[in-house]
Design the sequence.
């Protein structure tokens, strides 16, 4: 069971100066949340590319709007319920004295995005403010755990032809450093499509054949006329954060989020569907003293996102739900 993105270190989003990551995984059912914290503030951007998103505080990230920096981004399961996790992060940040100075106190700004994992057990169990607070308490500069953890706990990929043929998704991270500047990504992959090798296009995890022993290759199956199963809108979604220590304007931060979606499109097929809410944020801490230019940074962002997306499924663990659903993982298929 070898893959080049496992055989050698790929870095982590916490390689970016000024970034901490904390996670909470709910032991009662597979769901959770992951928080990316910039205590000193970070210039932020966002690009919502999927057609069924669940988000919070994305309007303030528009380049023409007032606020320049945010203090954390929350990624969570639980669909729209999971947006509550961001409130817990805001409470924790306030206790730490982190936030926008509004005269009478500090106002932490915590944009968020969620993915749909409500079919993985009891939907009444979902990330809330307490979960978001706990993720912040656990935050550190250490490389975050990957696979079936945090916001990726209940993630599933390859649902185009029914959940019974799908595989376990998860959470992954990676970083790229060029000329003294680092770009990292943290991605929770719950795509309706397959996750593919960005260099070869070969499916790594996704819809399986009827006997469950091989990958169906969703792209080729659809092009050959195999009809997709009916999908609940918004029941999927890949969400993530791109972070860099480069100094960026809000316009540049938004462009980096846009470029990051190129990485999603290389690693997921099909991506950005009507049933996905694919959303990527950018956090620029400005800790680096050099700037390689937006062309290089955009290339780095796409690469980090693609690698993180692949690692999300390479490190996911197989799961059998209480309802009898069996979700294989990449390691199972690689055997």
Sequence:
């Amino acid at each position: 069971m070898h893959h080049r993105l496992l055989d050698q270190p790929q870095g982590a989003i916490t390689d970016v100066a000024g970034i901490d990551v904390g996670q909470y995984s709910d032991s009662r059912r597979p769901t959770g949340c992951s928080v990316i914290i910039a205590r000193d503030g970070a210039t932020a951007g966002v690009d919502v590319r999927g057609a069924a998103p669940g988000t919070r505080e994305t309007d303030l990230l528009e380049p023409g709007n007032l606020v320049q920096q945010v203090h954390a981004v929350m990624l969570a399961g639980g669909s729209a319920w999971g947006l509550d996790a961001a409130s817990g992060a805001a409470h924790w940040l306030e206790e730490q004295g982190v936030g926008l100075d509004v005269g009478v106190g500090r106002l932490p700004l915590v944009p968020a995005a969620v993915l749909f994992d409500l079919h993985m057990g009891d939907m009444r169990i979902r990330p809330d403010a307490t979960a978001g607070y706990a993720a912040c308490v656990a935050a550190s500069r250490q490389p975050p755990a990957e696979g079936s953890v945090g916001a990726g706990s209940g993630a599933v990929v390859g649902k185009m032809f029914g959940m019974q043929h799908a595989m376990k998704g998860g959470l992954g991270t990676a970083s790229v450093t060029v000329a003294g500047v680092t770009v990292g990504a943290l991605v929770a992959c719950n795509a309706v499509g397959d996750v593919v090798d960005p260099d070869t296009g070969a499916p790594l995890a996704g819809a399986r054949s009827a006997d469950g022993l091989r990958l169906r290759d969703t792209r080729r199956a659809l092009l050959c006329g195999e009809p997709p199963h009916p999908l609940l809108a918004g029941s999927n979604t890949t969400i993530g954060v791109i972070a860099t220590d480069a100094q960026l304007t809000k316009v540049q931060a938004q462009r980096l989020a846009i470029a990051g979606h190129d990485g999603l499109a290389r690693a997921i097929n099909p991506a950005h569907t009507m049933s996905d809410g694919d959303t990527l944020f950018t956090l620029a801490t400005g800790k680096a003293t050099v700037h390689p230019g937006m062309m290089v940074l955009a290339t780095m962002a796409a690469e980090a996102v693609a690698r993180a997306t692949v690692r999300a499924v390479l490190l996911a663990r197989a799961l059998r739900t209480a309802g009898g659903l069996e979700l294989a993982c990449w390691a199972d298929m690689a055997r």
